[in-house]
Description:
The complex is a heterodimer. Chain A is α+β, with helices and mostly antiparallel strands. Chain A has one domain (4-137): Archease, Possible Chaperone, Chain: A, domain 1. Helix content of chain A is 25%, strand content 42%. Chain A contains 2 helices and 8 strands, in the order ββαβαβββββ. In chain A, a hairpin with a 2-residue loop joins strand 7 and strand 8. Chain B is of the alpha+beta class. Chain B has 16 helices and 19 strands. In chain B, strands 7, 8, 9, 11, 15, 16, 18 and 19 form an 8-stranded mixed sheet that branches. A 7-stranded mixed sheet of chain B has the order 1-2-3-4-5-13-12, with helices on both faces. In chain B, a hairpin with a 7-residue loop joins strand 15 (376-379) and strand 16. The longest helix of chain B has 36 residues, at 279-314. The model of chain B has no long low-confidence stretch (mean pLDDT 94). The interface between A and B is large, with 35 and 47 residues.
Amino acid sequence: MQEFVFEELEHTADIGVRVQAREPAALFAGAARAMFALLCAEPDAAAPVATRRVAIDAADIEALMVDWLNELLYLHETAGALFTDCRMRQWSPTHLEADVAGRPPLGAPQVHIKAATYHQLRIDQRADLWTGEVFFDI
Amino acid sequence: MIKLKNLERISPYIWEIPKSFRADMRVPARVYASKTLLEKALTDKSVEQLVNAATLPGIVGYAIAMPDVHQGYGFPVGGVAATRLPDGVISPGSIGYDINCGVRLLASDLYAGEVEPHLDDLAAALYHNCPSGLGKGGRFRLDDGEIDSVLAQGAHWCLKRGLATQHDVIHTEEGGRLQKAAPGKVSRRARDRGRDQIGTLGSGNHFLEVDRVAETYDEAAADAFGLHPGQVVLLIHCGSRGLGHQVCTDYVRDFQQALARFRIQLPDRELVCAPLNSPEGEAYVGAMQAAANFAFANRQVLAHLAREAFEQILAPAGLPFQLRQVYDVAHNIGKFEQHVVDGKRMQVCVHRKGATRAFPPGHDDVPAGYRPVGQPVLVPGSMGTASYVLAGMPGAMEQTFGSACHGAGRNLSRTAAKKQVRGETLQQDLTRRGIRIRAGSMSGLAEEAPFAYKEVEEVIAVVQGAGIARAVARLEPLAVIKG
Lengths: 138, 483
């Protein structure tokens, strides 16, 4: 399998993603890629124009995922870029540090995501497969 | 999974889940619905989320769902919960990420037939003047001092800038300014997100809509609101944009860390909360009210920009282009209000998430001109169908903490809607019916297809039947502008 795979999940009013990866750090990078794929049909189409260093500390792995995605949404909205390229420098269940590169969106955004939420949030590991499910308020 | 048999029918429009249903419920839960609407609500997690809301510390009366209820995150959309002061909680997720998302109605002196020849140009001018989508900042970029002023003053900031009239702010819920706003409790990040977003529409289900008053039902109220059949009106639906989203994000994160200290156990982390009398709770109240003021100002600036579009297109044709504000209501908000609970009058914090204040005739907080008939309640339907203007009734104070519905309520997921229709096809269908559509995203347009929503008439019938609010006027769309 690739480093990560993802799919869209249905919700009455909002929208979610399911991401799977062999490594937890790849799961987090995949969740970011999945979120920006909701925003823009071809999030990787343009060349990167902005890079940022992101560091997050959280109480547990679920909070780390929500805080990570919300940090990227903040960067997205203030820098006007899709931060699809994430290189994890450090990762533990309560801390991550990553270099992220943002590309300008081509075309109109498909949705506007207000926030990543704890609603039906799931992160688990079975054998050597990590699965994460996150729902967004849109 | 909650089933129909778990609910007791209290009246034709009220269904109750007793407190005994789950050990952690502090009050019973009540759903306002017809049997058909209730059965729809039971197909997702709406009612389960309502039961979860009934566990909030300090909740009084009932956890209440309006007939347009649908599954949200943590707290259902279409939910109302009142918590007692001083030690009840406030829950950011039970107000929503789009703090003070709401609806504004402006009325013209034009008839639909007069506007029809200019409708394409008017829709184009509104789309141009009112930036909608991401990356399209507004005409106003605010420095820190001005952001502080907007956060503290709401629509009154617009008044000082010549972007509002005294009539506008008088005819806005709370006069367009919440008094406990604390700009200092709004983070740098929230300010960064909102800096160039004042006077922008956003996307999703936010819109501007040029409507025609199709019918009036209550002549006294319609006269008081200045509405009559054939008249052209404008609806604006949006909120606090990225600034409000970040305020909610910040406090949901901070409250997660404080929860253990407050020894609060919750069935869903998204319901995270803090006591109203705690430093954390007080900080969120200040930030939330500041974000709400930003939303009042945002809708006010949008109204100003829409007025410019009307003037630009209709003045050269010698038509009256003025737009008079009918009312502006919030439907994602936490408000401190006086209500009677178990026979005792008390101050409570009413969480309304996808629910509209609906104060009855005679209430002091209803503008003087509307006091004999009740507060206007603005209920947009799905795109391409009808919207309603209601008036608050005494039943709202007696049953629902002065609250009514906020829309039609979703019936289908966005993904399912997109599978059933393409945005381009939907646009053509609506155009054939004479409705002009200007949208930034065809995919976003498909998600808002009329069939993705419940029948707004079913929703209105419930609030009317329950005595919460009564129908005053039905509006039908002529042009829809979306992000």
